[in-house]
Recover the amino acids of this structure.
């Protein structure tokens, strides 16, 4: 199997999760990459993606695993030749079996621009960070905010991923607290429970 990392930029950030999955399938067919299929009455291509993000959020660190014997270097070349604009493979590795591209990425790092500067120490001293869920209920997600720091005018944060705190909600609350304009959040890394890059924690076939 191959695990690959790809970016979602240049307009591709506006593709929904299922649309990206379909584009990856089409890319494999156009590139002539042989991919395994599931068994049963409705076989489908064995493609496993990391958890979905909100539409409109650019990402430099999306992950997908595909059941194929393709060479990683050849895979990168074929993917980038046939993938739609904005989806770019930036790394690929052979793996020993299936890895948890959805379950093991529990934190994510983002850069955020457009928020007015604030005291990060004061922010992190808060015991509550309340967001409103889709059903209208409120939830304290302070425990899902792991780090917040300024790098000149860019805010770099590590927050929970796919477990109750979406980056859209996070930036919405920052705007409410501190103000700003033309806010842009970009996912830069997918992290495991130990805060390490997801790809560094997997068992690769070298």
């Amino acid at each position: 199997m191959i695990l690959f990392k790809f970016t979602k930029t240049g307009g591709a950030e506006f593709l929904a999760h299922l649309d990206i999955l379909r584009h990856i399938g089409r890319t494999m067919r156009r590139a002539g990459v042989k991919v395994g299929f599931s068994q049963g009455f409705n076989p489908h291509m064995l493609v496993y993606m990391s958890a979905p993000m909100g539409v409109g959020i650019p990402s430099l660190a999306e992950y997908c695993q595909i059941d194929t014997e393709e060479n990683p270097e050849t895979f990168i070349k074929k993917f980038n030749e046939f993938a739609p604009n904005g989806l770019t493979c930036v790394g690929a590795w052979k793996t020993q079996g299936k890895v948890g591209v959805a379950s093991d990425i529990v934190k994510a790092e983002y850069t955020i621009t457009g928020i007015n500067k604030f005291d990060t120490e004061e922010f992190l001293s808060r015991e509550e960070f309340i967001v409103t869920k889709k059903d209208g209920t409120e939830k304290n997600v302070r425990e899902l905010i792991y780090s917040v720091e300024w790098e000149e005018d860019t805010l770099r944060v590590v927050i929970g991923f796919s477990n109750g705190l979406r980056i859209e909600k996070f930036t919405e609350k920052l705007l409410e607290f501190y103000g700003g304009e033309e806010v842009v959040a970009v996912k830069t890394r997918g992290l495991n429970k130990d805060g390490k890059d997801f790809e560094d924690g997997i068992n690769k076939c070298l």
Observations:
- The mean pLDDT is 91.
- The first helix runs from residue 17 to 31.
